[in-house]
Amino acid sequence: MDDSFAREIWKVVEPVHAVTYFAPECIEAHKAAGLRGFWMGYFGSRGAPLGPVGPGVIEATFYGFHPARVRRAVPDAWSFAEPQAILRARTEGAARALRRLVPGVDGIAESVVPLLETVVTVADGAGRALFSANRDLPAVDDPVGRLWQATTALREHRGDGHVALLAGEGLDGLQANVLASETAGVPAERLRESRGWSEDEWAAAVEAMTASGLMAADGVTALGREVKARIEARTDELAARPYRALDDPQALVEALSPAARGASEVIRFPNPIGLPRT
Predict the structure, then answer these.
(1) Please, what is the angle between helix 5-22 and helix 83-101, to 10°?
(2) Residue 216 main-chain phi, psi, to 5 deg
(3) What is the DSSP letter of 219?
(4) What is the pTM of this model?
(5) Alpha helices of the chain — where are they, by DSSP H?
(6) What are 120-160's pLDDT values in tens digits?
(7) Which end of the chain is more exposed for a tag (fewer CB within 10 A), N or C?
(8) CA neighbor of 224 nearest in space, from 234, 235, 209
(9) If DSSP codes are grouped into helix, strand and coil, which group holds residue 215?
(10) By C-alpha distance, which of 104, 134, 98 is closest to 23?
């Protein structure tokens, strides 16, 4: 298994996890728990494993979001719903969504959850706050809830590593969005609006990246593409390591693919995650 496997597995792990952002069952579950509006639901539910943290922790771990967007939701989210209540709501909402979207998902969960949980157990949590917080959550009884939770933990494992690499290259959250837009085919307007940045702030980031040689008048430079390729390759390398605990990692991709296809029904393309159609 080479490191490129990590991108294959991401393409089937990410959609299963991402129902929590897009499926109506999940949005309604966050609302029923007490969270108000989409963004409080997003930051509150994704951040709940960390506990009732302040906005600075969310900004640092989520990366790429405008501080003002975060601070309109956190810490107010914790006054509307306790993290433990949010954790229950997000898992139950995701399980309902997956049962609607994925035929036979209970059978899929029965076969793949032991494999996914093996990977979660052996993965290195050092420097990975969101992953480690998710790994420490108690296992739920519902097998589909466990499927969603395992994919969520592994999604955050990859994401935490990716954030560390972006920071290591000297890219702040906004610049990371600009580079992603230029290289991954996600429209700049989609990323800018979803992450809360103004046109002027986006333009200032492009100007700073032009000064550093990553951008030019006609778009991303060869240096910019080299930096992006290096980040993505290293992200794959770090993310692939725990999957080597499996005898046949490719079998996990094949087993999860039907769930990913069904979950993708609620995901828009292109999307801010950068996820391609499954």
Answers:
(1) 110
(2) -140, 180
(3) E
(4) 0.96
(5) 5-22, 24-33, 37-47, 55-62, 67-71, 76-80, 83-101, 105-122, 129-135, 143-168, 173-184, 188-195, 199-211, 222-240, 249-263
(6) 999 999 999 999 999 999 999 999 999 999 999 999 999 99
(7) N
(8) 209
(9) strand
(10) 98
